[in-house]
## 1
Amino acid sequence: MPPTVTENQTDDVITDEPTIEYRSKTSSGHRLSPPTGASAKGGCEEFIGILQEFSKLFGAFNIADFIPHLGRIDPQGIQARLVKARQSLDKFIDNVIDDHMEKKKRKEEEKAAKNGEDDQEDTDMVDDLLAFYSEEAGLSKESDDLQNSIKLNKDNIKAIIMDVMFGGTEAVASAIEWVMAELMRSPEDLKHVQKELKDVVGLDRRVEEDDFDKLTFLRCTIKETLRLHPPIPLLLHETAEDSEISGYFIPKKTRVMINVWAIGRDPAAWDDPDTFRPSRFLREKAPDFKGSNFEFIPFGSGRRSCPGMQLGLYAVDYAVANLLHCFTWELPDGMKPADMDTNDVFGLTAPRATRLVAVPSPRLLRAVY
Ligand code: HEM
């Protein structure tokens, strides 16, 4: 019997509030953990609040984008809110770095007191970055050793944390939620993915990184989800030089918006474009998302495309594969797949307008949990 959903039984329910609580082991063997360094609830809540404010502001209609001289007046107060959000983020990341630096200093003192003996403790991404910390950033040419040749100052570390915070959280969470939602709406495809997981992995263990390449249908499912629901639906670029395209003169500094969402549903490029059909990616020469098939660019294309694509895909693969392998999923309260809301909300990313609620029950042998 699957657990039923009630207001105070949230442990049995998957919702996908943005979370930075994922920890995983990358192929290089490094652990990735929250850049807040604080799995403490307060830190997470503050971080989520800041991200949500940025998300709202990035998706807001800003009249100054269309009538630039209104930018100075800021009639909607968007600029003022952006400045405030940026200050909160700066302060938040400064605190994270300071906490980690303090911890590092304490550890070094403890190590010295124990005559160089080190306690093997879990480190996170900020600790790993601090291993390269030096007030004078730059690349030393004398040394070939990575640890000694790369130096990062506090601003460099802060910039990297911001990239990971923005890129590595909402886009990934949105993709995971949409894969789960589309599969709940398409029970045949859900069955297909789960059968593949059972055949490749077996019911006596969890999914591991080495399994990913054999999970062809799961990969197609993730691609099909990114086609229909690109987490970043609108890309904003600016021309660097005057140029001419198809006889049109495009002056330098023209803003160019690329509608990835519409491109992924273009009937000229896709058969039956609004239908979720992962098997379309099984055919030979199906487009890939590396940026050279312009009908499918969930990670952008060219020099400004997503630098975190591999990490993002790894996080989505890992989360979705384990959610689907470890649990059988049902919609709550006898809800029918066709009744599910499939609208998205535009912001920094495009998550589902209505949070996904689904009910899991264990699928693997008991000893695995
Ligand atoms: C499913 C996950 C992800 C998707 C779909 C995604 C998608 C994108 C897209 C569409 C862009 C804009 C490209 C353009 O403007 O042409 C972008 C930029 C970026 N992404 Fe990702 N991303 C994901 C995960 C990540 C992760 C995990 C990180 C970092 C850890 C990351 C870091 C960045 C950064 C720093 C940029 C800005 C690059 C620049 O401006 O040059 N992304 N991403």
## 2
Amino acid sequence: MAEALNKIGIVGAGQMGTGIAHVVALAGYDVTLYDVSPERAIKGLERVSRTLDRQLASSKITAEDKAAALSRLSAAGSVGDLADMDLVIEAATEDETVKRKIYATVCPVLKAEAILATNTSSISITRLASATDRPERFIGIHFMNPVPVMKLVELVRGIATGDATFLASKAFVATLDKTTTVSEDFPAFIVNRILLPMINEAIYTLYEGVGSVESIDTAMKLGANHPMGPLQLADFIGLDTCLSIMQVLHDGLADSKYRPCPLLVKYVEAGWLGRKTNRGFYDYRGEVPVPTR
Ligand SMILES: NC(=O)c1ccc[n+]([C@@H]2O[C@H](COP(=O)([O-])OP(=O)(O)OC[C@H]3O[C@@H](n4cnc5c(N)ncnc54)[C@H](O)[C@@H]3O)[C@@H](O)[C@H]2O)c1
């Protein structure tokens, strides 16, 4: 029998951290959301509340479900609020230095038996685990965006991840009504190993003038039956996250086919990170998204 995990901490109240908080609280767990400042965590909870409102409006949940989920959610005032968590899921910025710093702060606070998981899209679980005091109790639990909608969660074991950690994580994810796949610990795992080079190639297609933003997205939606175009998807993921994943693939596999497109680098340098900054391959500041190239 896998051990029960009841109190769940989440580090990072961005798109993914709030999405995970939403789904985990709806499933009946107590959730504490932590970010660099309590204000950011509170803003994250406000976003969860708005998403719950939308689910209520479309009858996906009841008013009781919403009230119960909100009553289980709290914003951490400080890292000390994670002290009695059974599982902490780190969903902070896709940057190894940032994640290592977080583990240095969070690990001393956690119970010895707490599981620490990362939602990283690409970074080595084995290497991240080595920056913690608990490689056996460390695992990749990779949710997809948007978390309330997407059915898949990739589980990634580092070289030291223990069986008990793996089984408890798998059982936990099953209670969220998600399907798990297990990936070996190689750069970007399964989903992003396949998805991100496709997105990067779409950006090269734009960069080389083969097609406009609209042509590329329409071509892939109608020609390959993708639910959204690759550039729209890149904006949705976050262009900083896309670039980080391509860098991890490029560095980790040492193959030039993973070279990040210079146009992706330029957008990130401009701070045009996609939906989260209201501008990326599309400008979202008006009524309808307008292509930026
Ligand atoms: N965006 C996606 O589609 C997607 C999908 C799956 C997994 N992921 C992964 O999830 C993680 C988060 O991605 P996101 O899209 O939510 O990013 P985001 O930029 O929306 O949010 C990142 C959050 O981390 C916080 N943060 C940064 N440093 C911190 C620190 N020291 N302590 C606490 N919080 C800190 C930021 O304040 C921010 O709220 C990344 O590892 C990413 O690769 C992203």
